[in-house]
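Here is one chain, start to finish.
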Amino acid sequence: MKTSFFIIASAGLLGISQTSFFPNLNILGVRPDLVLLATITVGLVWSLRYSLLLAIAGGLVLDLSGSGTVGLSSIALLPVAVLTSLEALEVVESRLPAMLILTILGTVLYYLVLMLLFQATSATLPWLDLLVSMLPLTVLINSMASLPMLGLFWLFSERFQPDAGRAA
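Its structure:
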């Protein structure tokens, strides 16, 4: 119960920070995707169950506080949460390489799904410009921000981690 509360509170805090404070902190028009990184981190450190919870709650906060279509961010974050549960990642002994791999793959997956959802809601997108210029820079920024995010959740893992660890 306290883990679920911590996840929902984190999703709210990170979502509001991402839409309120971090737009001012951007590098060449790109800012770290805090909710995306937290979704990956929770899936890696704890479990798919909590990663899905964070994806849904964090996505809703992003949409509600960022004037987006409610639900699109959550839907785009769900495949990223599922990606964190891949058994192939269990072979990587250290969580640092796994975090970097998941951040790269998760960022690409998140933005492709989000772009498809925007396109489906009749939004016209400059696909080539987004894929060629913005996505590589976003992957780089998220990769740099992923390590502090992993450290942050690692600090809280002793206090809030469920008893069963990754199996929860």
